[in-house]
Design brief:
elongated; alpha+beta; 3 strands; YefM-like fold; three-stranded mixed sheet
């Protein structure tokens, strides 16, 4: 369940930091009852970026397949990559 905290809780930075690291998810900060900020640990942010990059790569591959309607043979592709990168 997402953590939602009022902006006044940011006064206690240690508690917010500990919560960010313990939950490994963003904390939503409200101001006057409305969403205002999102606070998270660097690890959580990096993980979200990695997930986003992976999702983008999958979407690109799906779009390529839809436009070409062709699949590459996995064994041939892996053999070519091994030759290219490992001699």
């Amino acid at each position: 369940m997402p953590q939602i905290r009022p902006i006044t809780d940011l006064r206690n930075t240690t508690e917010i930091s500990d919560l960010c690291h313990a939950k490994n998810e963003p904390i939503f900060i409200t101001k006057n009852g409305y969403g205002d900020l999102v606070v998270m640990s660097i690890e959580t942010f990096d993980s979200m970026l990695e997930d986003r990059e992976l999702d983008a790569a999958v979407a690109e591959a799906e779009a390529e397949y839809i436009s070409d309607n062709q699949l590459a043979d996995a064994r041939e592709t892996l053999s070519g990559l091994k030759r290219k990168h490992f001699g």
